[in-house]
Here is the input.
Amino acid sequence: MSKRNLILTFLFASLLLVLAACAAPSTSEAPAPADSGEAAAPAEEAAPAEEAAPAEDAMAGELVSPIPGAACDTETEPAGDPIVVGGSLSLTGFLAPTANVHRVVGEVVTDWINECGGLLGRPVEWMVLDDQSVPENASANYERLTTVDKVDLVMGPYGAANILAGAAPVGRAGYIYPTHTNGAPQKEIGDYHFPSWQIGGGAATEEEIFQAAADPVWDALESTGALPATAFYVTNKFPFTMAFTKAAQRGGEDRGVETTEYVEYDLGTTDFSSIALRISAADPDFIFVGAIGLDIVNLYDAFATIGYEPKSIYAAVPSPGPTMALGDAINGLMALTIYENHPPFTDNPIAAEFTKRFVPAAEAEGLLSLVETQAAASMGAWQILLSAVNATGGLDHAQMKDWLHANEVESIAGTLTFDGFNGYGVDLSRVMQVQDGNRYVVWPTDVAAPDVELVYPIR
Here is the structure.
């Protein structure tokens, strides 16, 4: 075992001993993930050092409903046949470290809504099928869920390719399709698609969609008064990360930032030694990495091998748990985010209650025990689904679709609308930076953590 793995194992074991008293295992009936042969992400600190206090309503003793604006009836037990929400998730395979976050969120939310009297007075059941990180499996899973199992509702999978693959059978069955991480917003799904992680809201073209996500990165850097002179771009050959990286490159060059190199690598790459050497030789002022899953972890391992420290670095959508487990090495790392565990986000009573529930559930599973973008986006997708059912008073998908197109949904990450291309009505792209081991939104300023500013350069 490597020195790094020994350290992570020690940290994980220590944290479990400290928090064992408050760690409650999930009681959902969803199947547990099969052993994929890859280690679970080590558990991390449950919250930043300056942990946000729960909102007053959540502390008052009355349980808040996960549905925005709805009452929580803790006096009435849900009765009748369960309302089954079906979903396909990558419980195994290379997407599993992040996809299992979305599984746990589903378990937390269904337990929570059942404590509040259920949905339409009926209990809610979360039924998850493993697609093994394979898009074809995701498609087959949704075909089964909608035509064989005949679930009442569906929740989208994790990952752009899987979401696109699952859309066709869901659309044929006439279901609404809430998604939490559609990494291909330029690929039109249909008017039944309702995303919670909204990128490029109102944009009409692929270039505009991803420019909306990339511009905040440059705006944040520019706000420091020391815009990078040079930038190195490297990306996974994944639809979202490639488009995002190219948009970042356009944005940088428009601001006069010189491109030192642009590199693409194959999906599933684990050896980043040659890329790390190329970055080290260029020693750019800024590195933009179109990273997904464990890419940024593997790149930092390669940096450590050659003793290189970046001046500034941004990762697109890295797996949160394994990334934060790198500890001090990633101080200064920036990433795309829509939510972090600090005010003003945690001022929302639903967000405060969700944090209270998710943290011990994730810690018990060996996942990052912190509400960040992935968990928040997943919670937002459930808020979309539950709000539509609650507002229409039934399970008629045509009525729910019409209601969502005509109304807003208040998610814990912000107000969502679905009147733009592919259902993206707003843009929630924000910049997160790791500082002293904590995750903070640093841009834009209206949602930035109090008294926290972007650090640039980091060496």
Summary: The CA atoms of residues 443 and 453 lie 8 Å apart. Confidence is low (pLDDT under 50) at residues 1-60. The chain has 13 helices and 14 strands.
